[in-house]
């Protein structure tokens, strides 16, 4: 299976900000025997993970984007792998990769001493809730925590609670998982708000999340360790159809913004008087699949297309209008 990757030589990687540069492209054979369902770069832009319908996750060294180097196969899932996500730099989790699959399992992978060997360091078996459709890491000031979106309408959150010694040399990692019945249909995506207090590390009480499902957008916060949550009000007139993806804009000290996907449209939501309202829409005239904010917050990377996927950047002007930049086309002209 061929993969086309596009890297910004001056991209924003995690908390590292660099000026926008030029676009580099690379096309290579991944060796996957099924369609590629997700690709994710780590925060430093050094490693690429590819997830496929063939049940494999493959890792690549992309320090030289024009010549990716295969590292290893991760063979833990018994069905298609829907999504992968790298742990953010600064979580204390190190170089960890999270994968979620149709087998209802979320697997946390970590490297062995040999960089070409990785192993499962933690597993969440969520199969009673159906498939794991999406996974998302919490902001790094919460510590090592992640959320899973499931096909029965459930969202789970898992946070690292610390370690205990189980022998003279063995160390056992403890994780706590909470389950939230948020949607009435399948959940397609989940995203965390980054605007949490500095004293939140190691606990999820007060964390805010958004989730996209068959029944629309949900915005909610975790109240306590007992698993109670509070849903915020979303404009019902604008929230009656299935939402494919959602991404919370990085906090810039101004106001909260969410971007969501409905068919051809990217929809921008903002909180007005404790109610989420549609601020603007951008119609890209083709199916939109995935959203990812740049750390600066004024740029949004969009994956769209039908027969072939391509990358679009939405860049916000001072007036609030969004410019549409076709990155695939820009890359071919460099």
How would you characterize the overall build of this protein?
- Mean pLDDT is 85; it is low at 9-23.
- This protein is an all-beta fold and 334 residues long.
- It is built from one helix and 27 strands.
- It has a five-stranded mixed β-sheet, with no helix packed on it. It has a four-stranded antiparallel β-sheet with strand order 3-4-5-6, with no helix packed on it. A four-stranded antiparallel β-sheet has the order 7-8-9-10, with no helix packed on it.
- Strand 16 (208-213) and strand 17 form a beta hairpin.
Instruction: Give the strand line-up of the largest sheet.
Output: 19-23-22-21-20
Class inferred from helices and paired strands: mainly beta
Number of domains: 2
CATH superfamily of the largest domain: YVTN repeat-like/Quinoprotein amine dehydrogenase
Rounded mean pLDDT is 85
């Amino acid at each position: 299976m061929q993969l086309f990757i596009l890297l910004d030589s001056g991209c924003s990687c995690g908390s590292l900000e660099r000026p926008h540069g030029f676009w580099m492209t690379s096309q290579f054979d991944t060796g996957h025997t099924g369609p590629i369902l997700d690709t994710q770069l780590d925060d430093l832009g050094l490693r690429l993970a590819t997830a496929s319908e063939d049940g494999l996750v493959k890792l690549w060294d992309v320090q030289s984007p024009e010549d990716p180097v295969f590292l290893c196969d991760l063979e833990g899932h018994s069905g298609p792998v829907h999504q992968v996500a790298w742990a953010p730099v600064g979580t204390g989790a190190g170089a960890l990769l999270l994968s979620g699959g149709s087998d209802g399992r979320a697997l946390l992978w970590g490297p062995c001493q040999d960089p070409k060997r990785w192993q499962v360091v933690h597993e969440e078996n969520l199969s009673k809730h159906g498939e794991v459709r999406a996974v998302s890491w919490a902001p790094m000031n919460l510590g090592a925590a992640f959320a899973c979106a499931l096909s029965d309408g459930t969202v789970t959150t898992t946070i690292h609670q610390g370690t205990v010694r189980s022998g003279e040399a063995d160390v056992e990692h403890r994780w706590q998982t909470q389950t939230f019945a948020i949607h009435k249909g399948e959940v397609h995506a989940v995203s965390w708000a980054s605007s949490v207090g500095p004293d939140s590390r190691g606990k999820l009480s007060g964390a805010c999340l958004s989730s996209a499902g068959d029944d629309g957008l949900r915005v909610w916060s975790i109240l306590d360790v007992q698993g109670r949550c509070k849903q915020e009000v979303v404009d019902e007139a604008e929230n009656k159809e299935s939402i494919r993806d959602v991404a919370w804009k990085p906090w810039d000290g101004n106001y909260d913004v969410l971007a969501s996907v409905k068919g051809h449209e990217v929809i921008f939501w903002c909180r007005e008087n404790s109610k989420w309202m549609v601020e603007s829409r951008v119609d890209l005239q083709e199916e939109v699949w995935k959203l990812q904010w740049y750390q600066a917050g004024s740029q949004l990377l969009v994956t769209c297309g039908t027969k072939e996927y391509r990358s679009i950047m939405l860049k916000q002007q001072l007036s609030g209008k969004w410019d549409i930049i076709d990155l695939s086309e820009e890359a071919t002209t460099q």
